[in-house]
Amino acid sequence: MRYLQPAFYGEGPSDYAFLPRLLLRLCEQVLLDLGCGPFEVADPEMLNDAEGAPRRRSERVAEAAFKARDAWNLLWVHSDGAGDPDAARATSVQPAFDLLAQRLPPGSWAGVAVIPVREVEAWVLADGDALRAALGVSLDDVALGLPGASACEGLADPKPPMEQAFKTALGRQYRPGRGSGLQDILRAVAERSRCETLRSLPSFRACEAEMRSALLQLYPDLASRR
Predict the structure, then answer these.
(1) Domains in the chain, please, with CATH?
(2) What pLDDT is stored for residue 225 in this prediction?
């Protein structure tokens, strides 16, 4: 039996509501694809900045992860790409991994960058069936204003279409200013979103490839089973 303990560092409440559960499901799928055999993936450890944390984001990520080092061996770090995911990785994620590599034993951990092309809301919009199930409606993609999975990351700002879809489905019940209600919806969408649909998004495919590499780094014996 292999025991995997992930940790997650994100940008805001919506990211913490949506991404950890989705990434856990993706991680389990990759382990199955690798022929891992019996395994257990624990609920992700949620990392947050401590009081007096460094100002540079990569340093904050590394500090939070190092302080919780006994609680995880797989680190998921989210950063919105803001139209340039390579730059987001270079400035916000990779430096954090480099700092941790100086402080943690080799082979004891692995990191995964989670970087949507613009914002994570594009991932939320990708699976119309998951949205309908989470919202409890039967409206089709056109009625909900969904662009289709392959077009989601082409949106300059995916937040307004997401908000409009929720408002169309829920009417007055949806209050975007009430954070807990929004987070409940995002958790429900994450639970239902299908990896095969999300693979239409280049950034999700990149995340999946990085997840696979990270798991092979932790469990190199799996490479011979591929």
Answers:
(1) 2-117+201-225 (3.40.50.1860), 121-192 (no CATH)
(2) 66
